[in-house]
């Protein structure tokens, strides 16, 4: 033991002996000695200095060059913050999701113009607005082809957080865009005003998508929720008009105050639905971890 460790006087610690350090530097140490020395060197600058002294000159030069290259490559604090911010935005903001939302808004606006029902209280755009963010949320799903997938594997719990940040980014883009498009639409009709009755349904559909994503994947859940919304809003008018699509759109886009889903009394219900699905997401957050994903539970989930 004396040729391996040297006790430090007055303390309960120890230092590696010169013989052990020399054996370690020359690659002659084995097994527990190697592990013990490496664990000790992490916290002992004195032994690190003694190890550097017994290294071969070529090894000392190599380690010195590596240290210099690492130190000089470290970015300045301000630059590092900027790079981290840019990297974070690159992960959260996906161009495809923003393009999909823009196309959905344009499509709803075009349908509104064709149907000729745009006004301050109604219109196809307001009717479809709650489902518009789902087009971006579906593309925000994280899969094995995602550029940040390898980083997610190193921190499995970050999977749900990334989905939530991407969903928030989609909402922050979709809600103002749909609002501006709706405002311009009613302005073209010679009126003014903005309808907010679609906002709570929008949050409810988005939270339902995230809750369903824990079981069938975010992309599939977004499709299902979007189709259910379209069926619920356009299906009954289509039946009542005998299959006349244009007439069904005009009937469905009646003033929102007359539409049960957008009535003032329904807003409380949408708030409760949103809270319910948020609770589901919290309770099933473990299903968003990589282990469930790789087992096929959430396939295209995040």
TrEMBL record:
The answer, when asked if Cell division is one of the entry's keywords, is no
- Coiled-coil spans are none
Superkingdom, taxonomy of origin = Bacteria
User: Which keywords, in A-to-Z order, does the entry hold?
Assistant: Membrane, Transcription, Transcription regulation, Transmembrane, Transmembrane helix
InterPro entries noted in UniProt: Anti_sigma_zinc_sf
Looking at the UniProt entry, the stretches that span the membrane are 91-111, 123-142, 163-184, 196-218, 225-249, 261-283
What is this protein's name? Answer: Zinc-finger domain-containing protein
Q: Which organism is it from?
A: Micromonospora deserti
């Amino acid at each position: 033991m004396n040729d391996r460790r040297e006790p430090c006087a007055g303390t309960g610690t120890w230092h590696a002996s010169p013989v052990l350090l020399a054996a370690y530097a020359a690659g002659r140490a084995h097994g527990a000695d190697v592990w013990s020395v490496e664990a000790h060197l992490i916290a002992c600058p004195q032994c690190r200095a003694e190890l550097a002294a017994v290294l071969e000159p070529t090894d000392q030069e190599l380690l010195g060059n590596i240290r210099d290259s690492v130190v000089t490559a470290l970015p300045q604090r301000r630059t590092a913050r900027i790079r981290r911010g840019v990297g974070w935005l690159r992960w959260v903001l996906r161009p495809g999701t923003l393009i999909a939302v823009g196309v959905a808004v344009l499509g709803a606006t075009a349908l509104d113009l064709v149907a000729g029902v745009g006004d301050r209280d109604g219109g196809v755009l307001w009717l479809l607005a709650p489902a518009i963010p789902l087009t971006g949320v579906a593309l925000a799903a994280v899969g094995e082809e995602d550029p940040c997938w390898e980083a997610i594997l190193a921190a499995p719990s970050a999977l749900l957080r990334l989905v939530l940040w991407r969903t928030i980014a989609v909402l922050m883009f979709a809600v103002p865009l749909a609002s501006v498009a709706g405002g311009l639409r009613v302005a073209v009709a010679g009126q003014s005003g903005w309808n907010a009755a679609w906002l709570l349904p929008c949050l409810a559909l988005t939270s339902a998508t995230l809750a369903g994503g824990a079981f069938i994947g975010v992309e599939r859940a977004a499709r299902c929720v979007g189709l259910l919304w379209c069926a619920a809003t356009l299906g009954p008018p289509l039946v009542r008009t005998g299959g006349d699509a244009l007439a069904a759109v005009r009937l469905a886009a009646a003033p929102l105050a007359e539409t049960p889903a957008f009535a003032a009394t329904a807003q409380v219900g949408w708030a409760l639905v949103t809270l319910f699905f948020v609770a589901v997401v919290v309770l099933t957050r473990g299903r968003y971890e990589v282990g469930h994903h790789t087992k096929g539970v959430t396939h295209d989930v995040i």
